[in-house]
Design brief:
By secondary structure, the protein is mainly alpha-helical. The protein has 9 helices and 2 strands. A two-stranded antiparallel ribbon has the order 1-2. Helix 7 runs antiparallel to helix 9. The mean pLDDT is 87.
Length: 157
């Protein structure tokens, strides 16, 4: 295949690419860490909405900006269900355990987890709320930053 210099050059280039993709999302980490359900979504009940009307969720501008940043990040994977089936992930606890133990080799699965909540939220908006309240957005973006920071520090030498 090649020597270790080729491998480290490949990893350096890969991590630089990952870093460029993840950096805009890391700006949201403080908000994601502290956000609660009430900070994420409220039901619209403004003028003219009677008790017989259907209310609808109104998402915070911070959440919507995060979702937009994810959509243009280059991290979204439309085939995210494959990541879940490949790793047998079915619950929030399993997602969190996987994220905490992930390494750079699991980057595609981390992208799949992030994608489930961002892309899936387009048709099942409850996923955006869950992504925040279950700490999935926070943990995934934090882990991605931890991975690129680790390799950035180790390959800079």
């Amino acid at each position: 295949m090649g020597n270790s210099t080729d491998s480290s050059e490949y990893l350096r280039a890969l991590m630089q690419d990952y870093k460029m993709k993840i950096t805009p999302l890391t700006d949201y980490l403080p908000w994601l860490q502290q956000a609660s359900e009430s900070a994420v979504v409220n039901n619209y009940s403004g003028n003219g909405v009677s008790e017989n009307s259907i209310t609808f969720p109104v998402y915070s501008s911070e959440l919507m900006n995060f979702i937009k940043a994810c959509n243009v990040s280059g991290l979204m994977d439309r085939n995210y269900p494959y990541a879940y089936s490949r790793k047998g992930i079915k619950t929030h606890d399993q997602e969190r355990r996987f994220i905490v133990g992930a390494t750079w080799k699991d980057w595609d699965i981390l992208c799949g987890i992030l994608s489930k909540y961002v892309l899936g939220g387009r048709t099942r908006a409850v996923l955006w709320k869950e992504g925040v309240t279950e700490q999935i957005f926070y943990l995934t973006v934090s882990k991605m930053r931890e991975i690129v920071d680790y390799w950035d520090g180790n390959t800079a030498k």
